[in-house]
Amino acid sequence: MLNINKKYGPINTVMDDSIVSQKQGVKTHQPNVRVVSQMQPIRVLVANAKGGCGKTTMATNIASYFATQGEGTAIVDYDPQGSSIDWLAARDPHLAKITGIAAFKNQNSNSTRSYSLRVPSNTSRVVFDTPAGLNGHILSDMIQTSDFIVIPVIPSAIDIRAATGFIREVLLSRAFRSNKKPIAVIANRVKKNTLIYQKLQRFLNSLNIPFIASFRDTQNYVRASEHGLGLADFSQRDPKDKLEWQPMLEWIELQIRSKQKK
Ligand SMILES: Nc1ncnc2c1ncn2[C@@H]1O[C@H](COP(=O)(O)OP(=O)(O)OP(=O)(O)O)[C@@H](O)[C@H]1O
Ligand SMILES: [Mg+2]
Predict the structure, then answer these.
(1) Banded model confidence at residue 148, pLDDT cuts 50, 70, 90
(2) Which residues contact 83 (CB under 8 A, 6 or more apart)?
(3) Where are the domains of the chain?
(4) In 10 A of CB 57, how many CB atoms?
C-alpha cells in the first residue's frame, strides 16, 4: 500500500533545466520563472568519501520521509552519477512529491549554494546527496550550506578506516570549526554481533559522535530504490525496518526542532 501526498498532490513543477520531475524524467526550460525561497529550509547533508556505503539510499529515504510528512521536499544531487535523480525519475507522480535538482550539472565555485535559487518556494526540507571522494573546499562548502550531517558507514575494516579519515576531515574543516553542526553516523548493511561492528561502535564513542541507527542488509532497500520509493512510502513497512528507522527519524526531528528554536 503506497502513501499518496494529500497536501501537495501530484504537482510536478519544473522550473529549471536541471530540475527533474518525478517519472517524467523530462527537463523543461521556463526561463521566466524566478524562484525565491520564502523561508530557510532545513538542509540535511548525507556524505561519506567512501563509495557505495549507502549515501543515496539514506538521502532518498530521508527525502521520502519528509515528503510523506507533507513537507515541501527537494533532493539536490551533487553526484555526477545522478543516482538520486534517476531514483526520482522512476517515482510515481501520485506519490508524495519531491523536487530533484541535478546540481552536478552546474558545478562552479558558487554551485553549492546556488541550488537555493532553484528550489520551489514551498520547500521546507532539502536533502543533499553527495559523491564519493568528497573532500577539501567542496566538502567544507557543503558543510557550511547544511544544518546537520548524516554519515552512513558500512561496518567493514576498509569502510571504517575510510570513515575515520572522512569524519576527521569534517571535524577539521574550516566550515565545521567556525560553525559546529550536529553529526550522526548510521551503520548501514549491518550484521550485528560481529567484531567489526563493535569496533565501529568503540570508534564513534571515542569521538563522542552519536551512533544513531543501524540498518540491516535487506533487499527491501534495493527493490524500493528501483521504483523511486523510500520505506516511508509504504504504509505497511516491514516492522524490522520501521523499528530501525525510528531512532534516526527521532534524531532528525530533534535537530529540526532545535534549529527552528534558534
Ligand atoms: N541496508 C542495505 N541493504 C541492502 N542493500 C543496500 C543497503 N543500503 C544500500 N544498499 C545497496 O547498496 C548499493 C550502494 O548503495 P548506495 O547507492 O546508496 O551507496 P552510495 O554511497 O550512494 O554509492 P556511491 O558512492 O556510488 O554514490 C545500492 O545498490 C543499494 O541499493
Ligand atoms: Mg550515491
Answers:
(1) very high
(2) 56, 77, 129
(3) 19-261
(4) 25
- Give the pLDDT band of residue 25 (cuts 50, 70, 90): very low
Structure confidence at residue 13 as a pLDDT band (50, 70, 90): very low
The CA angle 196-202-205, to the nearest 5 degrees, is 145
> Which residues line the pocket of ligand 1, CB cutoff 6 A?
51-57, 79, 81, 83, 132, 188-189, 215, 217-218, 221-222, 225
Domain 19-261 grouped into CATH 3.40.50.300: yes
Nearest atom within ligand 1 for CA of residue 225: 31
Residues 6 or more apart in contact with residue 161 via CB below 8 angstroms: none
Ligand 1 atom nearest to 59, measured from its CA: 18
CA atoms within 13 A on the CB side of 11: 10
Task: Report the residue among 48, 50, 56, 159 best suited for mutation to probe ligand 1: largest number of ligand atoms under 8 A from its CB.
Answer: 56
* pTM assigned to the model: 0.87
Burial of 103 (0-12, 13-18, 19+ CB in 10 A): buried
* Sheet hosting strand 211-216, strand order edge to edge: 19-20, 98-101, 73-77, 125-129, 42-46, 148-153, 183-190, 211-216
Question: Which candidate, 27, 195, 168, 36, places its Cα nearest to that of 106?
Answer: 27
Pick the more confident residue, 12 or 222.
222
